[in-house]
Each structure stands twice: as C-alpha cells, then as structure tokens.
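Exam prep: given the inputs below (a chain plus zinc ion), describe the expected output before reading on.
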Amino acid sequence: MSLNPALRASISADLDQTITDYKHFHQTPELSMQETNTAADIASRLQSLGLTTHTFGGTGVVTVIENGDGPVIGYRADIDGLPITEDTGLDYASTADGTLPDGGTTKVMHGCGHDTHITVGLYLAKHLLAHTDLWSGTVVMIFQPGEETGQGARAMLDDGLWGRIVRPEVIFGQHVWPIPAGHLYVSSGTAMAMSDCLCVTVRGLQTHGSQPENGIDPIVLGAYMITRLQSVVSREISGNDMAVVTVGTFHSGLKENIIPDSAEFTLNIRTFTEEVREVVLERVRRIILAEALASGAPEPEIEEMYRFPRCFNDPAETESFLTHVGAELGTDHVHLEQPSTGSEDVGAFGDDIGVPYVYWFFGGYSPAKFEGGQTPPGNHSPFFAPDDVETTLETGIRAALSAVLNKVGKDRA
Ligand code: ZN
Ligand code: ZN
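Solution:
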C-alpha cells in the first residue's frame, strides 16, 4: 500500500541522518558470530527509542514493538561482515580488523551490504514508533548475527527465540543486491537455494617424488575426484532441475619432490529442492569414495562444514507483497524474478514454527552502473558498495514499511 504522506515526510526528513548512520555501520563491520560491538550499538539505539532489547545466540538482538491489538509481524535484518579487504576507495571505507576462527587476522568489510540491512531495520523501528497512530499490532524486529556462516539464525532459535518472544504470523526480510537502486526483485515459492558445504580429506601414502610407485598420490587422486565431480550436474541431474557443485579450495603438499600423504578440498553445493539435494549429495559421496577405491587409497573423510536451509517465499504472501509494495514503489519497480542460486538462513525463522515469510532483494546501484551492459561488483566483492546510498536506503525503508503496514496498518487490506 502507499505510505501515508506523514510517514513519507519522516523518511525524507531523516535521510541525512540515515546515511550518516549507514556510513558508521559501514566503517565498523565485525565477523560472523563476533558482532559484539555491532549488537551493543543496535541495542543501545533501539533502547534510545524507548524499546526493550533481548539477546539471543550471543550477538543476536530482538526487540518487540507493541502498539495495541492486531497482527504480530516479524522483520529480520542480518548484521555480520566478511573477511575481505575493502577496495571501494570510498572515504568511509572500512579499515576494521578481525580474528578468524583459526586465529588468523584479517581485514573486515561489509562486503555483503548487511550495513544497509542494519540501518534499514533501525529506521523501520524508528518510523513505526514515530507513527503509532497509523497502525495497531506488534512488530518483532530480529537483528541476526552470523548469516555468512549459516550459524546465526540457528543460534538464535537454539537459544529459545520462539519460546521467549511472541511468534509472528508472517516474517519479512530483504537483501541489498547489485540491481538498480529503487527496484525490488522477489521470487514466489523457492527464492534462494539450499547450500551444503563439505570438506573432503583425501588420504594417500607419502613417498619421495622420484618413487611414486611406493606411495599413493593424493594430489592425482584429488584431481580425479574433482574432475569427475563436474559430471554430477552435467550427467546425473535432469535438465529440469537446478544444481551447482563448486570446488572452492584445494590444498596439498609442501615441496615439488615430495608426494604428500593427504590433500584437502572443500565443496559448495546449491540445490532448490530436497529431492535434488539428496541425489547430489549421494552422487558426490559415491564419486569420492569410488575414486579412492580406484586408487587403492584409504577411505577419505567427508565432513559437513555448514549448511543453509531453504528460502521459500510463501506464494500468497508474495502476491500480496507484489500488489502492496508495488503500490508504494511503482509496479514497474517491483519485479517477479526467478530464484537466486545464492543462499540465506532467513527461512529458518519461519520454517522453525511453520510461519510464512517473504524475502526480497533491493537495488544498490545507480542506473549509470548498468550502462552498456556493464555488471557492477556483486556481493562479497572487495568493490561492493551501493553508489546511490540515498535511493538504496530510502527504497529499503519504504519497502519494509510498506510490507509491514500492509499487515498492521489501520488501513490494511
Ligand atoms: Zn553474503
Ligand atoms: Zn548477505
């Protein structure tokens, strides 16, 4: 639905401060599940609005905005940064440091744009509180840590989120994306892929590089495994189904004339349905074990590193979203799109309690960035950052308010 003019005026009046706050979060990213300062910052800003905050999963922050009788609606924003050295050249670029789980140090960047998500979430809360005359009901705001590692939603749920916080009847969320600012992309049904990450340790037999007959070469074996894994999608999955199998790392050996005793590689698998997921995982396992057998090697270890659940937008809620948020932003600015092969753990909040959700993408780049068929830097690039910050944030806030007020607004549909 179109936003009330008073609400629109508040968004505009606050835009300068919104951008200032965004730049602050941009400069202070923290790694997944280490968002201690970010969580404290979010909590204190919410408290300064008069809200009570709750902590879940260590660095997750939740607040419940109560405003009389009416539906209970959830809104989720993720808050973590990435181990990337920012190379945007912006005068507010991050120079923050972080410590990786293995103890190594890294630069940290909001390379996935979660700084925009934090900012939009905070201003959604602020504008809802400033205009309580326009709505009645309850809005549960979830600031989630650890999205990038697939840990955060699960950590909040395992910490008893839905046992202690009122359960919403629908949950919304959004992600900044390398599409034109002012535009939204949304999918109905499957919205984002499931993701499985595996670590494979290939066992060989160490020997001198001059005497390969005395060993089992884990590098050659690993190379066969990786080559053959390319045939899972091309030869074993129907053309009607979607699957991606990517080997993102391969490490082995220390010296050119030593055949090492092991190799390690990591896999990332994306699928849209549980059926296809199970087939791919079974075929991947079969190939890895069979190639080891073919080389006379010990059985390799296949370890699950982490996984992302499905993200399935409720079709009826998505249709309602298209209609009502389209009325605010313009139907030619809200696009029904094919699902993304990216992954997200936002769906866990709804799936955990059988509640529908809608998750959409909002644009982060000015039209100039797309001229002549150019593709601007995507999420997780050291060059990723919205160039039209004003339109990006304003659109995110309008979309969130419009989706929420469609449910709790006094003039709701
Ligand atoms: Zn990301
Ligand atoms: Zn992200």
